[in-house]
Design brief:
Blueprint lengths: L1 E4 H6 L5 E3 L20 E6 L4 E7 L11 H27 L9
Antiparallel strand pairs: 1-2, 1-3, 3-4
């Protein structure tokens, strides 16, 4: 089995590669490149097939690396700001003044 650094393909130049013999379940450590966009991956080649495996992909969460409490309060703040924004938009769209109905 041959492991190759998939991130190295995007960076260009020499690509880190390691060939190992596998008999059953085997663990291997292998240095890989993290791309500018935050992806880490390897390619795994056997005699019959070539696999591409993403080891880590970037998180798009603004609360990445924070505690659960920060996430809860951040989410609540986003919901409250959404309600306030919707109310202000509604007032702006209606002109902000009451309209008298004709009977």
């Amino acid at each position: 089995m041959t492991l190759s650094d998939a991130g190295g393909f995007l960076e260009g130049g020499e690509v880190n590669r390691r060939t190992i013999t596998v008999d059953g379940r085997t663990a291997a450590e292998f240095a890989v490149t993290e791309t500018d966009r935050g992806y880490v991956g390897v390619s795994i080649a056997t005699d019959q097939v070539l696999y591409a495996e993403i080891v880590r992909s970037p998180s798009i969460s603004p609360f990445r690396g924070s505690t659960g409490t920060v996430g809860w309060f951040g989410g609540a703040a986003i919901v409250i700001l959404s309600f306030v924004g919707a109310a202000l938009w509604k007032l702006h769209k209606e002109g902000g003044e009451p309209v008298e109905a004709d009977i």
